[in-house]
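Hi both,

Apologies for the delay on this - the queue was longer than expected. I finally got the 2-acetamido-2-deoxy-beta-D-glucopyranose-bound model through. Below you'll find the protein sequence and the ligand SMILES exactly as submitted, and right after that the structure tokens for the full complex including the ligand.
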Amino acid sequence: MFSSLVFPVLFFLTMAGRTTGQILSCFYEIENFNVSIIEPSLCTHIILIGSSNVDNIGHFQEPPSNVTEEFVKLKNRAPVKLLLAVTGNSAHFTTLVSSEATMQQFADESLAYLDRSGIDGIDIDWEFPVWSWGAKKSDRTRFGDLLRILRQKYGTKKLITVDVAGPPTIAKYSYQADYLNKYADFVQIMSYDYHVYDPILNPVVGFNSPLRRLPYERGILAKMNSDSSLSTYISMGLWKNKTVFGIPTYGYAYTLFNAFINEPYSLATGSKGAVTYSMVCPAMLKKKNIDYKFEWDYPASSPYIHGRDRTWISYEDPRSVTEKAKYAKEQQLAGGMVFDLKSDDYLGLCANGSYPLIRTIKSVLFDKN
Ligand SMILES: *[C@@H]1O[C@H](CO)[C@@H](O)[C@H](O)[C@H]1NC(C)=O
Ligand SMILES: *[C@@H]1O[C@H](CO)[C@@H](O)[C@H](O)[C@H]1NC(C)=O
Ligand SMILES: *[C@@H]1O[C@H](CO)[C@@H](O)[C@H](O)[C@H]1NC(C)=O
Ligand SMILES: *[C@@H]1O[C@H](CO)[C@@H](O)[C@H](O)[C@H]1NC(C)=O
């Protein structure tokens, strides 16, 4: 009885006394899983995503054992922390948080897995509490209950991190800062996927991860940028020393309506999906003799390219990720997060060594000046 009363107090003292340090967490998507392409010394944390989820009855689904075994081997190559991202249909998370018993079981099962495997913690990727089909209003507070229960089970021996939505509208609906501050080791803002093409509602080109608003953006559009997301979370009360700023290495391609009308927000006839840096870096395009015009947008701190073939691409380059990492550093956040390893030029095809974007982010974040 006595110990169960003092536990929370002791526990919060321990958490508050923890020094944050500089974080560079890097996601690794499970598709075409091959750990030998990962350079574990690039990142402080590597997060495996796509192999674990919450099932339809709210239970923890662990990765296949051969995946876990390979993933854990990264620890032999560098002193990196390894995290397992838990994803899943939002309605399944709602099921999970609807019952105290289910949350307890989830905490037990995930902890057993972490202990058994040697993985350092979990990263909760619920997209998004309250916001999605099948969601409930109570998700917002019950998410806090889930984090509290996980923390009570894990103590300080395993990490708990949370991925939160970029768009400020979702942020205010989905989360409360108090439980994020209290129970999460850090909180990663997914500051990307701001522009969603829709043939009827939004048939235009746009930036995947604009740093600041463009001068002519109004209303909700003026908030669809990384700077606006961060200030929303800070105004909600999220501590800067818990906040990790998301930077993508991928971008998106679109088909313009007219090749000569190619500014951001120009009419598009379709979306061509995600692109990696090595698909669009200048060196590779030159090698393939593809003639694109390279542009830079100052407020967005983002490049884009367009061509006679009506292709329009928003992506990241060393300059854009430098601006974004500098911003995170100036804001005195806990660090940066990258999505993901494989969409950087991991093979060094862009003629500047392997992982040029992540290496750049790392040098900006950890540069002592
Ligand atoms: C983090 O920031 C909060 C709010 O500014 C502060 O109360 C807390 O002590 C800080 N924690 C650490 C470890 O610096
Ligand atoms: C994994 O990546 C390494 C390094 O690029 C490569 O040599 C190897 O063939 C890959 N393995 C598989 C199964 O693709
Ligand atoms: C793990 O095992 C499954 C089933 O045997 C196999 O299909 C899969 O390719 C394996 N994955 C890895 C990363 O070895
Ligand atoms: C290659 O890297 C250097 C150093 O980070 C940078 O200054 C240069 O702009 C990069 N070149 C290309 C083509 O990305």
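Main takeaway for now: The first helix runs from residue 2 to 17.

I'll put the files on the shared drive as well.

H.
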